[in-house]
Specification:
With 389 residues, this protein is of the alpha+beta class. It has helices spanning 3-7, 12-23, 35-47, 115-131, 152-159, 209-222, 269-284, 309-322, 337-340, 368-386, and strands spanning 51-56, 62-68, 74-80, 100-102, 105-107, 138-144, 166-171, 179-183, 185-194, 198-199, 236-244, 250-251, 254-263, 290-298, 302-303, 328-331, 348-350, 365-367. The strands form five sheets. A six-stranded mixed β-sheet has the order 1-2-6-3-7-17, sandwiched between helices. Strands 11-13-9-14 form a four-stranded antiparallel β-sheet. Strands 4-5-18 form a three-stranded antiparallel β-sheet.
Length: 389
């Protein structure tokens, strides 16, 4: 069977109907309930001839696996089932938890992030299954819970061994049909500064914890690593939350703030954390305030070899099917790949329909034609990378 015949097996109607059904199944996180979606996808998988399994994170948050084939290694396709909250519904042109088609676009919460991507992967699974190619691999779809909060579903899938035999990973987060081969890793830290309270008219009698926090923030900012990644550029810092003091006429005894570092793959996490501790020790060594660090969320940065066969095939087919030269890109944010992959170093690709600029926004949408192109690109790349010639 030639590649054109295989690509014709991608069913745009299936993509549309799955996207519609999934968008209209509320999975806003919090609370991130995905039990109903996992059940629906398991039933859909059975109707397509696939093997299915529910992997509960807890009673309401569930992962789902769909698969076929019996090879010793797996071609893994993955997408998350939860979405961010709708937010202020008055800002939406169309009802956010309803599927609306207008001018070649699908609107609704999750159309691009990433229920349209999940529908894309199910269509790829269905086409591959129907093609009945002599693949020497198992093909595995993993639908994960809780990606939008803590990636707990993906971490669980990895911990329970479902990724142990993976040969590759494709995740359909929105990339405008460019080929993502690197992503930054978030390292979140809460910093607590303790000083000494005093009357505001006698600041010399106290130790201002807010001043101490400002000194630490400046130290963090000025000490960021300068090494660069070709696609991701440098490590960044955002101080997103700060709180301190109790009253205008009291020298603040306490101040806390939260930092969001985004590391590049060249930065070793353990070394970076040790450097933060050392920096805090230096900054506070001659000061009367105390500083403590609590790391609240740490996910590794990732990159894959752009010369890998799958990666090259993705770029080739994305360019061919869009009739537009596509490129390799790096993502400033983390995906479930960071939870599913380590400690493995298999090829991975982040590739999907839609503009990342509309992620987590009101009036979220995905171009209808791009979902079909994404499915055909992934299908062609998998066939040409892993099917015997």
């Amino acid at each position: 069977m030639n590649i054109d015949s295989i690509l014709r097996k991608v069913d745009p109607t299936l993509i549309k109907e799955l996207t519609k059904t999934l968008v209209e199944m509320d999975s806003q996180n919090p609370p991130g309930r995905t039990k109903h979606i996992a059940k629906f996808l398991a039933e859909e998988g059975k109707s397509l001839g696939l093997e299915t399994k529910i992997v509960p994170l807890d009673n309401e948050r569930q992962n789902v696996l769909l698969s076929f084939g019996t090879g010793p290694r797996s071609l893994v396709l993955s997408g998350h089932l939860d979405t961010v909250p709708v937010g202020d519904e008055s800002k939406w042109k169309y009802p956010p938890l309803s599927f609306t088609e207008r001018n070649g676009r699908y609107y609704g919460r999750g159309t691009v992030d990433m229920k349209g991507g999940v529908a894309t992967l199910i269509a790829v699974m269905a086409a591959l299954y129907d093609a009945d190619l002599p693949l020497e691999y198992k093909v595995l779809f993993i639908g994960t819970a809780d990606e939008e909060v803590g990636m707990k579903g993906a971490f669980q899938i990895n911990k329970e061994g479902y990724m142990d035999n993976a040969a590759c990973l494709v995740i359909t987060e929105a990339t405008n049909l460019h080929v993502g081969i690197a992503e930054k890793g978030p390292l979140w830290v809460r910093v607590d500064v303790k000083g000494k309270a005093a009357h505001g008219s006698m600041p010399e009698k106290g130790v201002n914890a807010i001043y101490g926090a400002c000194k630490v923030i400046t130290g963090f900012r000025d000490s960021l690593p300068q090494v660069e990644n070709e696609l991701l550029r440098k490590t960044t810092l955002n101080v997103g939350v700060i709180a301190g003091g109790s009253k205008i006429n009291i020298v603040p005894e306490r101040c806390s703030f939260e930092c969001d570092f985004r590391l590049i793959p060249e930065i070793d996490i353990s070394t970076f954390k040790a450097d933060l501790y050392s920096l805090v020790d230096v900054l506070s060594s001659n000061e009367p305030f105390n500083v403590s660090l609590t790391f609240t969320h740490v996910v590794p940065a990732l990159s894959t070899n752009k010369n890998d066969v799958l990666v090259q095939q993705m770029l080739k087919w994305a360019t061919k099917l869009t009739n537009n030269q596509k490129s390799f890109i790096g993502l400033t944010y983390a995906t479930d790949a960071a939870a599913l992959l380590p400690p493995k170093t298999i090829p991975f690709v982040i590739f999907g329909a839609g503009d990342p600029a509309v992620l987590h926004q009101a009036n979220e949408f995905v171009p209808k034609k791009d979902l079909e192109i994404a499915a055909k690109t992934i299908l062609a790349a998998l066939v040409e990378s892993y099917s015997p010639s």
